[in-house]
Amino acid sequence: MIAISTTELRKNLRKYLTMATKEKVVVRFNKTETVEIVPGEKITVKDEYSDNTKLLEVLKKGEEDIAAGMFTEIKDPKNIWASIL
């Protein structure tokens, strides 16, 4: 086990994160409190906005709509509502 301060952790973050895969790393802060860095499982974050498959489907649908003429051309960007209405 190794105990370090938050200052030491900030200076050598990569070193202590790597070390934590092999041994217990305890970080002391506020003079009386401690936390332990423990190895964990790889986490994959997926949501409806970052899923590339869904994004590609939406883009393909948009291209199909444009090819079919289903779009509104904005003639004057300073007066968008004139083109929409």
Helical percentage: 40-55%
Count of structural domains: 2
Q: Tell me about the biggest sheet?
A: 3 strands, mixed
What integer is the average pLDDT?
87
Strand content: 15-25%
* Individual helix count: 4
Going across the biggest sheet, name each strand in turn.
Answer: 1-2-3
- What gross morphology would you assign? elongated
| Structural class based on helices, strands and sheet pairing | alpha+beta
How big is the Rg?
Answer: 26 Å
Q: Distance N terminus to C terminus?
A: 69 Å
Report the uncertain regions: none
Tally of strands: 3
Instruction: Output the helix-strand order.
Output: EHHEEHH
Fold and architecture overview:
By secondary structure, the protein is α+β, with helices and mostly antiparallel strands. It has 2 domains: 2-37; 52-84. 40% of the residues lie in helices and 16% in strands. It is built from 4 helices and 3 strands. It has helices at residues 6-11, 13-19, 52-67, 80-84; strands at residues 2-5, 25-29, 33-37. The chain has a 3-stranded mixed β-sheet. A hairpin with a 3-residue loop joins strand 2 and strand 3 (33-37). It is elongated and about 65 Å long. The N and C termini lie far apart (69 Å). 1% of the residues are buried.
Notable features of this structure?
16% strand, alpha+beta, 2 domains, 85 residues
State the gist of this model.
The chain is α+β, with helices and mostly antiparallel strands and 85 residues long. It has helices at residues 6-11, 13-19, 52-67, 80-84, and strands at 2-5, 25-29, 33-37. The protein folds into 2 domains: 2-37; 52-84.
